[in-house]
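Researcher: Here's the sequence for the chain we discussed earlier.
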Amino acid sequence: MERNPIISIDIHPDGSRFSTGGQACVNCVRWSPSGRYLASGGDDKVIMIWQLGRHGGGSTAFGSSVVNVEPWRCAATLRGHSGDVFDLAWSPSEEWLASCSVDNTIYIWNAVRWPEVVTILRGHSGLVKGLAWDPVGKYIASQADDKSLRVWRTADWHCERVIREPFGDTTGTTHVLRLSWSPDGQYLVSAHAMNNSAPTAQIIEREGWKMDKDFVGHRKAITCVRFSPRILTGNTKQNERQQQYCCAAIGSRDCSVSIWLTNLRRPRAVIKELFHNPVSMDIYGWIHLDHIWKAVIPN
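Model: Thanks. This is the structure I predict for it:
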């Protein structure tokens, strides 16, 4: 059986469908928060905005002779980058779409008036490979091959903080650097960091941008992090009071995926040898979370 690489995966907000990228030149696919649009970007430097046509949807009934193909049409084509597009991120309000590229820039597009460019963020000196909005839309974070992570303010699009320390000792490069913000906005977790020569996912606290914690345990570089969109409440130990915490999945080049809670120092689950090749592209699977949560992290 032919095995084509899957470089990106994203699940529709209502869980009814998911999209993948990897064939031809597509490096990233991202649904908008409402599910109305699907954005794709890739090696052709172009970002496509897709929208489901009015007469969409084949039959999903078992045994139906109707081909299950949906007629998606291109609603907008966004051109501006001079190199491959590596990542895309919709703002929580769906007002903006951010894109990053090997041209070292981040474009902020006006999602209300395509194809208007709101601004271009410059400052990275290397390929920009990951983007993440904070859940209230006050900041957008970017990570690049220049061994830095930058936090940008959306009020004026100026750089709030440049973070270099966790990445100074990293060696080599990864295809992507997909970071993630916790749904409560308290934590930003990066890809491809190092601590005492060990690969980690660096935890950056929103308050003061402190870096006292990290997720450590993988044998090779962390390439992608993804938080569940829900804030969870429960107790992880017997006789412990109820508390709120967030859950993140981490993918690595060691072909494994780990599941972490923000209130614990050790992973709740590690799935080894899940794939034949490194988890070097994307993670996005937080749908029907109640069932996943009960299966992976029992009370």
